[in-house]
Amino acid sequence: MVETVHLAAEPRDRAGKGAARALRRAGRVPSIVYGAKQPPMMISVDRLELNRLLKDPAFMSHIVDIDVGGETHHVLPRDVQAHPVTDEAEHVDFLRVSDDTTIAVDVPVYFVNELQSPGIKKGGVLNVVRHHVELICRVDSIPESLVVDLAGWDVGSTIHISAVSLPEGVRPAITDRDFTVATIAAPSGMAGTVAEGGEAAEDE
Asked: Helix or strand or coil: residue 114?
């Protein structure tokens, strides 16, 4: 199961661009907590602490316990708005959740055992089509990541989602096809080079 992280927040009583700019000058990021049939709650979080959490590629699938004035809110990050030039976070949306909430969430994909792949040993190139996969699951079942075992895959192989082990009760959001997660392409000059395009191109 995905880990829970903790984040302190302060309430904010003013909306609007001027108030948001003042918060950012003070080193804070305006944010909002919404959902669960409760009124939206405007908050701000420390920029440095948020940036530390954002370095984790799995942040968007982590449960966050936000402490606001001694009250804890169980939330999931849903959107991070970034500055177009600096890429600094400028606003974050958090969705209130409970353990039995079913949700769509993007989970990062990692690849292991490259040295046990015959295709990579021959000089083949791992072409990652999906760095994240959208999954449907309960909040208490969100996996930390999906792990693709490359052992045994040869040049020309296409690794579909059906070859990836999913935890019980977790399913892909895409259900109408066995979509591509990665391929092992032939190196330049190798006979029988696999033509690029096809399903991998369609799934990007």
From this structure: helix
